[in-house]
Design brief:
The structure holds 2 protein chains of 2 kinds. By secondary structure, chain A is of the alpha/beta class. Chain A has a single domain, classed as Anaerobic Ribonucleotide-triphosphate Reductase Large Chain, CATH 3.20.70. In chain A, strands 1, 2, 3, 4, 5, 6, 7, 8, 9, 10 and 13 form an 11-stranded mixed sheet that branches. The longest helix of chain A has 30 residues. Chain A is globular. Chain B is an alpha+beta fold. The longest helix of chain B has 15 residues. Chain B is globular, with a radius of gyration of 13 Å. The chains are: A alpha/beta, B alpha+beta.
Chain lengths: ~450, ~90
């Protein structure tokens, strides 16, 4: 077998990862700058945006399909991220930007992508009139469109936390839930509130095309919790050093697939290759769960004491393994812990093994934050704002991206179930602390940026 | 790294039976695809045949070859996949 450049074992390992362990490319995301689409008339700006998106992304879906067939690696989603719309729309005289969201939705449907991200504003230090109009447009924009995703960055390590924006977002999340009451508050699943948002994230709902990015770029998000899970399961006796090595090796291989698909997509679309986001992104499917990896390390249920340590090991090993596999790693890169999108998390929440507070603790060491958590529909805006403030504080102090994507499910209380469908999954409603925090949130102003020294 | 090679890896997985190599090879020959190497092994209880093949002189597209081999696989009761060699190169070689 000298002419084979591969050991049959290696070939089988790859086949097994794809066919039995759900290894896939989660998304090819095309980032498109809409900075050249600003116009005094919002209708004209929206038309320019529509045209540019359709022109830039016309081959995105077809190229994704071809690569999937040639390489035999499933590519689950093709998506688009655009310049934060507040920057594009604010030179118009419109008092709300819903029209722009509708055109983004149409463009996404036209080119065949399931989500388009970037109905966004970056307000970590302060808000322009355009930012305010964008934020106030979010509930209607998300309620009246299918594919548009919104995000707002309310804090950074360098600027601190904009508590006025945080307070406002509490109310916006409530409005999103109310406007989509008939669909269990689905609009909230398309809205992310960030601290330290990244400019090249290919994953929804938080993707946007940052201002430091080129005109058009291809970013790739890989996944593969199943492949990591079976590697961990094959080593029940391994100590943590060995376990970390096993995860690193697997993450390396998973990320290489992202690197390959990203480079090829970039060549064929004639668009520069940005980054590989080497995240472990779960789905509600069996065998595609991050929670199961933590449990396979020896925890009865995710949420048990030890879960934060297990997640810290996993997240770090994924980054170390993936970093060597790609020439440009970026995005969020790490293990995601959404609740409704991960079968192990769903079961742990149902068994009351997983509390809101434990989830918050786990976000200190995972790649993003409080993600896809169904909470009681009567959660006040001030409490939602305080949840955002806590999560932003974790991100700000730890110099990492954190985010909040919670759904106060209208008319539902703790323990009742909510179905979002598809990749968004299902979940029981989880309790939040009901003690009042409104006076705290009402203070307004900014929480100052932290010291970057004297770290203890 | 440029797309240079025309080589693909054909994998056949299933219960062992007669005619697997003959059946698969015929499909490849009819498509003008040259078999460079063949290897067989067992993965748990399954029979696995791996072929390295060169599509430089192929008379059909990779898509068409996949379709024909998948049909042959159904006929033989096996799963037959074709993937560009780069998948394995990227995953297993630095």
């Amino acid at each position: 077998m000298r002419s084979f450049r591969f050991d049959p074992e290696e070939i089988l390992e790859t086949i097994k990862m794809v066919q039995m362990e759900n290894l896939d490319i989660r998304t090819i995301t095309m980032g498109i700058s809409l900075r050249d689409c600003a116009h005094p008339s919002l209708a004209a700006a929206a038309r320019k945006a529509y045209d540019k998106i359709c022109r830039s992304a016309q081959s995105l879906v077809a190229v994704g399909d071809t690569l999937q067939r040639e390489y035999g690696i499933p590519i689950i989603n093709r998506r688009i991220s655009v310049t934060p719309i507040a920057l594009v729309a604010e030179s118009s005289d419109a008092d709300n930007y819903v029209l722009m969201a509708e055109q983004l939705d149409r463009a996404a449907a036209e080119v065949g992508v399931n989500f388009i991200g970037g109905f966004s504003a970056l307000v970590h230090k302060g808000m322009t009139p355009g930012d305010a109009r964008l934020i106030d447009s979010i509930p209607r924009a998300l309620a009246t469109t299918e594919r548009v995703c919104a995000s707002v960055n309310v804090a950074t390590t360098k600027a601190g936390i904009n508590m006025d924006a945080v307070a406002r977002m509490g109310g916006i999340i409530r409005e999103c839930a109310e406007l989509t009451r008939a669909r269990d508050g689905l609009a909230c699943a398309k809205l992310v509130v960030f601290c330290n948002a990244v400019e090249d994230n290919p994953f929804m709902a938080g993707a946007f095309h940052g201002v430091g990015e080129p005109d058009c770029v291809i970013n790739v998000g890989v996944s593969g919790p199943g492949a990591v899970l079976s590697a961990v399961q094959r080593a029940p006796e391994a100590d943590f050093g060995e376990l970390a090595s096993i995860i690193k090796r697997t993450a390396f291989k998973i990320t290489r697939m992202g690197e390959l698909i990203g480079r090829r997509a970039s060549q064929r679309l004639g668009v520069p290759f940005g980054i590989v986001d080497l995240s472990l992104a779960p789905t509600p499917a069996q065998g595609d769960s991050v929670a199961r990896i933590l449990e396979s390390m020896g925890l009865e249920r995710v949420g048990a004491h030890g879960s934060t340590a297990a997640l810290a090991l996993l997240n770090d090993a994924v980054k170390k393994g993936g970093a060597m596999a790609s020439s440009h790693v970026g995005g969020l890169s790490g293990a995601f812990i959404p609740v409704s999108e991960d079968i192990g998390m769903i079961e742990a929440a149902a068994a009351q093994a997983l509390s809101f507070d434990k989830l918050e603790a786990m976000t200190c060491v995972c790649s993003v934050g409080l993600d896809m958590i169904a909470i009681p529909g009567d959660t006040p805006a001030a409490t939602l704002a305080a949840i955002i403030a806590d999560e932003a504080a974790i991100g700000m102090i730890n110099r990492k991206t954190t985010a909040v994507r919670v759904i106060p499910v209208p008319g539902k209380g703790v323990g009742e179930w909510v179905e979002f469908g598809g990749l968004l999954g299902r979940s029981p409603v989880i309790a939040v602390n009901t003690h009042d925090c409104s006076a705290f949130v009402r203070r307004g102003g900014r929480i100052p940026a932290p010291l970057q020294a004297l770290n203890n | 790294m440029a797309e240079s090679s025309n080589r693909v890896i054909v994998t056949v997985v299933g219960q062992d039976r007669t005619g697997i190599i003959a059946g698969t090879s015929r499909v490849l020959a009819e498509a003008g695809v040259n078999i460079v190497d063949i290897s067989q092994t067992l993965l748990e209880e399954f029979f696995v045949m791996i072929m390295l093949a060169d599509m430089a002189r192929a008379t059909v597209s990779l898509d068409e070859l996949k379709t024909r081999l998948a049909a042959k696989g159904t006929e033989l009761g096996m799963r037959i996949d074709v993937q560009h060699e780069d998948v394995f190169k990227f995953m297993h070689r630095i």
